[in-house]
Design brief:
The structure holds two protein chains of two kinds. By secondary structure, chain A is an alpha+beta fold. Chain A is built from five helices and five strands. The radius of gyration of chain A is 15 Å and the shape is globular. Classes of the chains: A alpha+beta, B alpha/beta.
Chain lengths: 157, 813
């Protein structure tokens, strides 16, 4: 099978990549760009582990074809660290126990980032709703809610 | 205490929030090939012919393996070595691996699976325990206690018949606990390769690298010293990654044959079929009580649907009858358990292993008893809580018990007195309690060696590395290891590097199961750290001309307790010790105390100490639709001491979450495809969308209280927290539903449909309940008689070589 080729922006960097045309964005990120921070739990759009930001909006990368991503801007968990510092969400997730096994964490982080980018001061209900497509089997979600809320406070400082 | 007891960022948190934690499927090795398994499409059959010719010729395929390549059986328990990596002449469930393709990429491997031709000769399908009890032939396995019964247990501790006769009231109930599965978000994955010396390395998402190591040595007929198993951090385990798995053995064989790295990552559907999850259990409980609530005796009968293989099933069977006595004082106790084989994915250990099912029944029955005796359910329990530092009727040695305080705390926090039987119809509260092991007292294979070992390396840089075979599955075992060492040596946890779960580099730890890691690894870590501290103290004492007992280790310094400005940095202390003693290294190990139970079967249940939990659940039930909403849960957990309260709270809340999934929605159930199509017995919904689990919108507010009375048996007094807090939640939900609308749902999951049916039954004047009506007749062996301690017993069985013993000595070949 002949490889297809696209040019896109990944975590702020212009990137070109060639890959088998059937691959999903998830597979292109993990297998062809070596960005393994993005995870998979079902590859059917059910669990949210593969969430990334596409032009700032959260999408399930297992449901997006790589060939459709020419010219887009993708943000993965690897792109959250800026100037060598953790994003406030990463700090609060780490401090408050919001990451246990850590497998669903990248998906939660980018989804929460999209929420805070759009609504700088969401209520608990808005946080619940925004994260309702991400499954976590470890935490019971409560420490995740608290970490998002703490990041709102941290972001304001 | 500088580290212990303080809420801290766990030591591996940065890796997790930056996506840098390397899970098994994140490993990409040069020249790596990919493996896929062909799984049986039929539930029970002889494999008459496998033709792999076409698959082997498919472009990009490097190797095709079948059962011929795997002559040696394995299994997690020595008594049930009943699995082969690929089927040898027989398949036992839809999903049983039959063949493997190793190809240049996953897609090619998938394509080649379709080119393998398999002829099956169907055998009778055993869809549930009733089939397996009714038909001895054909046997799913050629071992087991009788026909398709895998295991029969019959134990008696004291005269329960007399206890029932002496009771003021006797309560008899039947309950059913549906099976469910772990659903870790990470699908199982493994990579095998030869290292440059030709030895085998397996990276795998396993909770038990030591047991996988043993299984590989056996199944591959290789010296264990030539095999290295590295447990990658697990993306959730919950018990589902505790068995040695077919796919692990297959990729190892393939990597050895091809001399190239071989990876496998299961699909979500395959994870559902691998299972090893909660056994469906039908149970019958008979309890005699005095009018004041005192229990005179209890008899528990369980019937476990084991699925197609042994897995941990023998232990699971015993666990359904082991821990009833640990929570409440039960002077006479009888347990009969039966596990059958069926043609479904094998059941095994899930969080709480074998104990949630009977805990569910026991705690609902106590609610019924309280109502029958006109006692408050909390008061009843406070009257019967087991005494600390006692030996139970079945010879479990109980340590500290914080259960009474747990009950009082949730009663107070939930405002129980104002709510119970006082809320308007449709709203209710329910209470339940539980206890759980802080580690299994016995290893899976009989030996006298330590259950956990820790090694420390210290050098002149001031750096400390802690090595332990324990496996990080998200629970925070690396943080416990490092936290214990940091506390003893007076340094920061982030100063220490943890190297864990690697059979080449780390001393043996038996694995992340049975809530054993904190207690066992923690004690080993403290011992190793104290030995290191002793060496450092010798050297600093000489250097500063101070008596050793005046030295304090804190704030990365070693200093004089009477004159804190006199001292050296931690690195200087290490340098002084290295100069005095040479290269520095210490070890620590932990072996649990000997069990008091000396009877056959007494090996399941003993633990160094037990944790306790109590929960109050509030529910809202819509009587017209049966819809249940849980707005709030209060839970108190007796942890002994919280080493890192942030992690402890996470375990409690995560347990409540998983428990609510089991209570309200999760079920691993099967259906028959119509006969004219295939008659196969398949999973009803092997996908994360249809296998319902709680989302952020389903999760109630959880109010957690930690009861901390340090237990001398635990590291800094700590007991377990990973599993115990799950146990009281399911029965508390059922009891709350009864409080809300007056119907008993005696099984899980408690669905709107079942509530509606129970309400219909109530309206029709029938018993206001939904649940099983009877327990089937089982030809139990004569119970093994073990007199309880207060009847002069010594932990041994009274009568030898009964029918029971003869039968249970029949084990796997």
């Amino acid at each position: 099978m002949k490889n297809t080729h696209i040019a896109l922006t990944v975590n702020g960097e212009p990137t070109e990549v060639a890959f088998a045309a059937y691959k999903t964005l998830l597979e292109v990120l993990r297998e062809d760009l070596n960005l393994c921070g993005t995870k998979h739990g079902c590859e059917l759009g059910e669990c949210g582990a593969c969430a990334v930001l596409l032009d700032g909006r959260p999408v399930l990368s297992c449901l997006v074809l790589g060939v459709d991503c020419d010219g887009v801007s993708v943000t993965t968990v690897e792109g959250l660290v800026a100037d060598g510092r953790l994003h406030p969400l990463q700090d609060t997730f780490a401090d408050l126990g919001a990451a246990q096994c850590g497998y669903c964490t990248p998906g939660f982080l980018v989804t929460a980032k999209a929420l805070l980018d759009e609504h700088p001061n969401p209520t608990r209900e808005q946080i619940r709703d925004a994260l309702s497509g991400n499954l976590c089997r470890c935490t019971g979600y409560q420490q995740i809610f608290e970490a998002v809320e703490a990041a709102i406070v941290a972001g304001r400082r | 205490m500088n580290t212990i007891g303080k809420p801290r960022r766990r030591v591996d948190a940065r890796a997790k929030v930056t996506g840098q934690t390397k899970f098994a499927d994140d490993l990409m090795l040069p020249r790596m090939l990919h493996c896929k398994l062909l799984r049986s499409s039929v539930p029970h059959a002889r494999v008459v012919r496998i033709d792999t010719t076409r698959a082997a010729k498919h472009p990009g395929v490097h190797l095709v393996l079948t059962g011929e390549d795997f002559p040696i059986s394995y299994g997690i328990l020595p008594v049930s070595q009943d699995e082969h990596a690929l089927a040898r002449g027989r398949v036992r469930f839809v999903g049983d691996p039959v063949a493997a393709v190793i190809a240049r990429d996953e897609l090619t491997a998938f394509e080649a699976l379709d080119l393998i031709d398999v002829d099956y000769e169907p055998l009778r399908t055993f869809a549930g325990p009733e089939d397996s009890l009714a038909h001895d032939e054909p046997r799913i396995h050629d071992y087991g206690d009788r026909g398709n019964i895998h295991k029969l247990v019959s134990l008696s501790f004291g005269d329960t018949d007399r206890a029932f006769a002496d009771a003021d009231r006797v309560f008899e109930d039947t309950f059913f606990y549906q099976g469910n599965t772990h659903l870790p978000i990470e699908q199982h994955a493994a990579v095998a390769a030869r290292d440059p010396d030709g030895k085998l390395v397996l990276w795998s998402s396993t909770q038990t690298p030591h047991y996988v190591h043993r299984a590989l040595a056996k199944a591959l007929e290789m010296p264990a010293a030539h095999i290295r198993v590295i447990a990658t951090p697990n993306g959730g385990g919950f018990g589902g990654k505790s068995d040695p798995f077919n796919h692990e053995i297959v990729v190892c064989r393939a990597a050895l044959l091809l001399d190239r790295p071989v990876k496998i990552c299961l699909t979500r559907e395959e994870v559902f079929y691998c299972h090893r999850g909660r056994h469906p259990v039908l149970m019958e409980m008979k309890t005699g009580v005095k009018n004041d609530g005192t229990i005179t005796g209890m008899r528990v009968r369980t019937l476990l649907d084991g699925g197609a293989y042994g897995s941990y099933g023998v232990a699971s069977t015993f666990y359904t009858g082991a821990l009833q006595t640990v929570t409440y004082h039960i002077p006479t106790y009888e347990f009969q358990g039966c596990r059958v084989f069926t043609n479904k994915p094998p059941c095994g250990p899930k969080r709480g292993h074998g104990t949630p099912q009977t805990r569910f029944g026991q705690e609902i029955q106590l609610d019924k008893i309280a109502e029958g005796l006109k006692l408050d359910p909390a008061d009843l329990r406070l009257r019967i809580v087991e005494q600390p530092d006692t030996l139970t009727a079945n010879y479990l040695r109980v340590g500290t018990i914080g259960l009474s305080e747990c009950i009082r705390r949730v009663v107070r926090a939930s405002n129980w007195a104002a709510k119970f039987r006082r809320l308007p119809t449709g709203r209710g509260v329910g209470l339940a309690c539980s206890s759980y092991l802080s580690g299994a007292g016995l290893p899976i294979y009989w030996n006298d060696m330590p259950h956990s070992g820790v090694q420390l390396k210290l050098d002149r840089s001031g750096g400390v590395t802690a090595f332990c075979g324990a496996t990080e599955i998200g629970q925070g075992s690396d943080d416990v290891l490092v936290g214990c060492v940091a506390e003893v040596l007076g340094i920061d946890p982030l100063d220490i590097r943890a190297v864990t779960g690697d059979t080449d580099l780390t001393p043996v730890d038996l694995g992340s199961y049975s809530s054993r890691v904190t207690l066992m690894m923690g004690n080993a870590a403290i011992q190793a750290a104290e030995r290191a501290r002793d060496l450092l103290a010798d050297a600093v004492s000489k250097k500063l001309s101070l008596p050793k007992d005046r030295l304090v280790f804190a704030d990365r310094r070693v200093f004089d307790t009477e004159n804190p400005s006199t001292g050296v940095s931690f690195a200087e202390a290490v340098q002084a010790a290295e100069a005095m003693f040479g290269t520095l290294g210490t070890t620590g190990s932990y072996t649990p105390p000997k069990s008091a139970a000396k009877f056959k079967g007494g090996g399941v249940g003993p633990s160094p100490t037990y944790s306790y939990s109590a929960a109050v659940v509030e529910v809202e039930v819509d009587p017209s639709t049966g819809w249940i909403h849980v707005p709030r849960v209060w839970i108190a957990h007796d942890i002994g001491r919280a080493l890192n309260p942030t992690l402890v709270r996470g375990q409690v809340e995560g347990s409540v979450y998983m428990a609510l999934g089991e209570a309200l929605m999760e079920e691993q159930t099967f259906r028959r495809i119509r006969p004219h199509l295939s008659a196969a017995l398949v999973h009803k919904f092997p996908s994360m969308l249809e296998y319902k689990s709680p989302t952020t919108n389903d999760m109630p507010e959880v109010f957690t209280e930690l009861v901390e009375h340090p237990d001398p048996r635990g590291p800094f007094g700590a007991k377990e927290v990973g599993q115990g807090p799950l146990l009281p939640v399911m029965p508390a939900v059922a009891n709350a539903v009864y409080d809300a609308i007056g119907v008993r749902i005696d099984e899980v999951p408690i669905t709107p449909e079942k509530i509606a049916k129970a309400l219909d039954a109530k309206a029709a004047g029938k018993p206001a309940r939904y649940g099983p009506s009877s327990f089937p007749h089982i030809d139990w062996p004569e119970p093994m008689q073990v007199p309880p301690p207060w009847e002069g017993g010594d932990g041994k069985a009274k009568v030898k070589s009964t029918k029971a013993e003869v039968r249970s000595t029949v084990v796997a070949s």
